[in-house]
Amino acid sequence: MHGIIVAAGTPLAPLACARKPVMSHVFTPSASASVPVAGKAGATFPVHRIYCVGRNYVEHAKEMGFTGREPPFFFMKPADAVLPVAEGETGRMPYPSLTKSLHHEVELVVAIGTGGRDIKAAEAMKHVWGYAVGLDMTRRDLQGEAKKLGRPWDIGKGFDHSAPIGPIRRAAECKVDADTRITLEVNGTVRQQSTIGKLIWNLGEIIEHLSAAWELQPGDLIFTGTPEGVAAVSRGDVLKAEVAGVGSLQFTLV
Nearest to residue 251, comparing CAs of 43, 95, 42? Predict the structure, then answer.
């Protein structure tokens, strides 16, 4: 019998191991969604998730048929629903398919920089990276139809380009308080105006409730609610939104 003679003290060579397969995507993934940062050329804020607060201004709740301080509720939009528009520029939003009643909803957007779970309202502002002005565009007819049938709102709220947003400004550069004004004009006529102090659930309370249901992550955006005056818009309309001390946003429906 033939064998291999190994000198005493000579280490044995390791047995050959099967190589682990190299993992790769089956196609090139799309670039992740992001929003420009105000005052910092080339810097962007990567978007993780978009949370929206429903009926968070008293008068808007009334115009939607509700009264009282109901517990806050939330819905979501896909991260890539953002439609970033640079400060001072006029963006273009494609009028979405399937709807004959596209509504505007101007909102203060909170950008989360430090994540967490079960965040207390008193500590919430430590988790805020910055603010922006945004719109929760809504296919109102499709949303209403879904409500009647007891179905999810996704088709009414989470469509492509449904979250136009201006640049995000660092919280330290903003003054956001009860007197901060929020406005929306359509073709030069004011449609919505209010102050942040009229939120039913304030920013700290929103973050507290959200973080009890989801673990917030850096890159999360929170659309905090819209004032009264929501209404339909048409192709060719120019929408201009502003949150005082935060920024502005303008785009045309095409």
Answer: 95
Rounded to an integer, what is the distance from CA 167 to the centroid of its chain?
12
Give the up-direction half-sphere exposure of residue 79: CA atoms within 13 A in the CB hemisphere. Answer: 16
Burial class (CB in 10 A: 0-12, 13-18, 19+), 202: middle
What's the pLDDT tens digit per position in 176-228?
Answer: 999 999 999 999 999 999 999 999 999 999 999 999 999 999 999 999 999 99
Average pLDDT, the chain: 92
Single-letter amino acid code for the residue at 244 = A
Token match 């953002």: residue? Answer: 82
User: In terms of Cα–Cα distance, which of 224, 226, 167 is closest to 52?
Assistant: 224
CA neighbor of 233 nearest in space, from 98, 57, 96: 96
How far is it, in rounded angstroms, from Cα 163 to Cα 239?
Answer: 13
In the DSSP assignment, the letter for residue 128 is E
